[in-house]
């Protein structure tokens, strides 16, 4: 398992936090997600052989947020 912290712009409430969490958890290979609204980050534990960082970024961006 690998771990990454994504910096996410545009989250402002608990709904935003939940939308990002759900989008990432739906990806095959994502084991654990912790979204920190106050820091604008998401800590993701994932299997690099099943999911790419690019796919994670796309999933977040499809919810209307920017990964920087």
UniProtKB/TrEMBL annotation:
InterPro entries reported in the protein's UniProt record: CopZ, Heavy-metal-associated_CS, HMA_Cu_ion-bd, HMA_dom, HMA_dom_sf, MerP/CopZ
A Pfam cross-reference name: HMA
Residues covered by the HMA domain: 2-68
Location within or outside the cell: Cytoplasm
Keywords: Chaperone, Copper, Cytoplasm, Metal-binding
Signal peptide positions on this chain: none
Record keyword Chaperone present: yes
GO cellular component: cytoplasm
One MF term in the entry's GO annotations: copper ion binding
CDD domains the record matches: HMA
Listed name of the protein: Copper chaperone CopZ
Source species: Novibacillus thermophilus
Species lineage: Bacteria, Bacillati, Bacillota, Bacilli, Bacillales
